[in-house]
Description:
It is built from 14 helices and 21 strands. The protein is of the alpha+beta class and 502 residues long. It has a domain at 9-49 and 70-79 and 219-300 and 442-500: FAD/NAD(P)-binding domain (3-Layer(bba) Sandwich). Strands 1, 2, 10, 11, 12, 13 and 21 form a seven-stranded mixed β-sheet that branches. The chain has a seven-stranded mixed β-sheet with strand order 8-7-16-17-19-14-20. A three-stranded antiparallel β-sheet has the order 5-9-6. The longest helix has 22 residues, at 388-409. It is globular. The protein binds flavin-adenine dinucleotide (FAD). Flavin-adenine dinucleotide binds at residues 15-21, 38-41, 46-48, 61-65, 244-245, 274-275, 279, 306, 368, 428, 432-433, 439-440, 467-468, 473-475, 478.
Amino acid sequence: xxxxxxxxxxxxxxxxxxxxxxxxxxxxxxxxxxxxxxxxxxxxxxxxxxxxxxxxxxxxxxxxxxxxxxxxxxxxxxxxxxxxxxxxxxxxxxxxxxxxxxxxxxxxxxxxxxxxxxxxxxxxxxxxxxxxxxxxxxxxxxxxxxxxxxxxxxxxxxxxxxxxxxxxxxxxxxxxxxxxxxxxxxxxxxxxxxxxxxxxxxxxxxxxxxxxxxxxxxxxxxxxxxxxxxxxxxxxxxxxxxxxxxxxxxxxxxxxxxxxxxxxxxxxxxxxxxxxxxxxxxxxxxxxxxxxxxxxxxxxxxxxxxxxxxxxxxxxxxxxxxxxxxxxxxxxxxxxxxxxxxxxxxxxxxxxxxxxxxxxxxxxxxxxxxxxxxxxxxxxxxxxxxxxxxxxxxxxxxxxxxxxxxxxxxxxxxxxxxxxxxxxxxxxxxxxxxxxxxxxxxxxxxxxxxxxxxxxxxxxxxxxxxxxxxxxxxxxxxxxxxxxxxxxxxxxxxxxxxxxxx
Length: 502
Ligand SMILES: Cc1cc2nc3c(=O)[nH]c(=O)nc-3n(C[C@H](O)[C@H](O)[C@H](O)COP(=O)(O)OP(=O)(O)OC[C@H]3O[C@@H](n4cnc5c(N)ncnc54)[C@H](O)[C@@H]3O)c2cc1C
C-alpha cells in the first residue's frame, strides 16, 4: 500500500480509509474514476482496524453488525462490496443477541420484530398497546428513510419529521411505565444517546438495524477493510498508508489537490474527506472558506468517547457467549449524557469475540464504557509516547475500576486474566482524527436539525464529506453515507439497482 508516485493526477482523492472512504473508492473505481485513498495510519480501516496485543488480535470499533440476514439492507450492501467472500459472519443468539442488566433486572433481546414484540408483551402484559405503538413508530420512521431501504430518497434527509423529535421524550410519550421506557432505550450505548438531544430517528434506525438481525465477524474486524482494499485494487484504484494529509491545496476557489506531512503533493479534480468536519476545516487556509461555515463545523458537539479494556484470558477457561452483555448500574440507560466522573464506571459493554465459527471458549474480551474527552484533555497536546507516568497511572486506575465492576458480574474471570491493555479517548482521537475521540462522530440534536447536520456537499464546490459524521454512524450508517457521497458523482438510481441486484 505504499510507493505510488505523487505526479499522477487523480479524478478523486479520498482522505481517510475508514469504512465509508474505502466504500467510496470501490464504487467510484468501478465506475471508471481514477481514485486514490490516502490514510495517515500504518493500517487502513479507521475504527474497523484491529490491533495485535501479545499474540491476540483485538477489534476496536466493530463488535457486531445488524440487518445481515438474506435480503436485509446490510446483506445487499455487503454483497455489492463482495464482503461475503472469504469472511464468515456468525449469527448471534436469536433468543438474546444483546443481554442487558439494567439496575439489577435482566433482559435478553430476541432477534426480529415479531419475536421482540412477543418478548416485551410477555414481560409487560399491561403495556401491549405501548409496545405495539413503539414498534409501529420505529417501522414508520425507518420506512420514511428511503435511502436506508436502498430506495431513491423522495426528500432530503432534513425534511424528515423524525429529525425534530426527541428520542427520550417520544419514548416517554408512549408509556408511563419507567421500566419499559428503559427497556425501549436499552441499546443506548450503541448510539451514545443523549437524553436532551438525540433525535428519535437515530434511535429508530439503530434499533431497527440490530433488532432485525445481528451478526459477528468471525475473526478480526480488520478483514472488512482488507477485503475492500482488494476490491479497490481490482477496480484500478490505489490506497497509500502513512500519508497524513496536512493541507488542502487550492487553485483559485477550487481544490486542486492535497499536501501530505512528508511534503508529497497529490493532484485531483475532487476530494472526499472521510474524517471529522472540524479536523477537515483545519486543513483549509483562512480565507478559502466562509468563516460562518467553518465555525459551524468547528463548533459541533460530538458524541461521547469511550474507555476500552482489552483482556487476555487463559485459553479454554471462559465460555464464549453468543451475545453482548450490557451492564447498567443505575436503572437509567441514558445516564451517560450527564455522568459523574466520581461515580465512573456505571456501565460496561462486553464483547465476546468469535475467532472460530463454533467457538466454545474465548481467549480475549473487549470491555467498553463511556468516557468524556475532558478526563484526558490534560495530555491532549503531548505525543502518545510522552504522556508520562501520570497518564499511565490514570489508565491503570481506570482499568482497575472498570474491572472491579466487571468482576461483580463475572467473578469467575478473576483468576483467568493474564494481561490487559487499554484505550482512552486520546487513543481514539489519534487513530481516527476526530477532535474528541468521539465514538460515533458528531451528535445530532433534535432541537437544531439543520445546525447539527453535516451535508455531503461543502462550501467548496469540489470538496465532499463521507462517513459517520454525515447522517448516521455504524457499519450501516456509514455505508449509506458512502452511497450518498457517491451520488454526487454517479447515477444514484443505477447504483441502488446494482446493489439491490447483487
Ligand atoms: C468503540 C467503538 C465500537 C463500535 N462498535 C460498532 C459495532 O459494533 N457495530 C457498528 O456497526 N459500528 C460500531 N462502531 C461505529 C463504527 O466503527 C464507525 O461508525 C465507522 O467505522 C466509522 O467509519 P468512517 O467511515 O466514518 O471512518 P473512521 O473510522 O472515522 O475513519 C476515518 C479515517 O480517516 C483517517 N484520517 C483522519 N485524518 C486524516 C488525515 N489528515 N490524513 C489521512 N487520513 C486521515 C483516520 O486515520 C481513519 O482511518 C463502533 C465505534 C467505536 C468507536
